[in-house]
Amino acid sequence: MLGVMELLIVVGVIVVLAIIVGIYLWSTYNGLVTLNVRVDEAWSDITVQLKRRADLLPNLIESVKGYAAHERGVFEAVTKARAETLSAQGPADTSVAENHMQTALKSIFAVAEAYPQLQASQNFLQLQAELVDTEDKVQASRRFYNGGVRELNTKVKQFPNTLFAKRLGFAARDFFEVADRAAIAEPPRVQF
């Protein structure tokens, strides 16, 4: 039989192992919470920039309409893409909406190129500059979001985290990917 000293050593080893496992679980849980909050914050940044762009579009449409009122299909496409962007829920829906938005923006800038007076309009130039700035911010926010998702997904899928992360409410998140990568490779360009 085990002596008192050996029993204390076994109990001590078990207690130390329990403490080590507890510290590991505590630090892993806190790390997952931190990454989850970071991804939520990054998604919020994306939605703020998409809303900012959506708020610029009515003014842009009105500027172009004054010169090219007969281009009704282009204006309707931009309006539809704007509504789709504002109502998108989550990265997958937003990706589809982004693809439609990029196509619509290219169309409206193609129309604008045909009107030199419009291209000289200070209001139109300012709206264009703000739109390009917003597009840059959307891309930066997207990169930040996808980086956070990458970190969270890696931590959730690593062993032994994968054994308990899902039970604690943590799951892999979707990346914000756009179906037509060429459409977002660079912000809409305006050439004069």
Which key terms come to mind for this protein?
192 residues, mainly alpha, de novo design (two linked rop proteins), 6 helices, 77% helix, 0% strand, rod-shaped
Structure description:
The chain is an all-alpha fold and 192 residues long. It has a single domain (4-184), classed as de novo design (two linked rop proteins), CATH 1.20.1440.20. The protein is 77% helix and 0% strand. It has 6 helices and no strands. Helix 1 (4-65) packs antiparallel against helix 2 (72-87) and helix 2 packs antiparallel against helix 3 (90-113). It is rod-shaped, with a radius of gyration of 26 Å.
Instruction: Give the name of the CATH superfamily.
Output: LemA-like domain
Arithmetic mean of pLDDT: 87
Q: What does the largest sheet look like? A: none
Q: Provide the CATH top-level class.
A: Mainly Alpha
Through-space gap between termini: 92 Å
What's the number of helices? 6
Shape: rod-shaped
Quickly count the domains: 1
**Main structural class:** mainly alpha
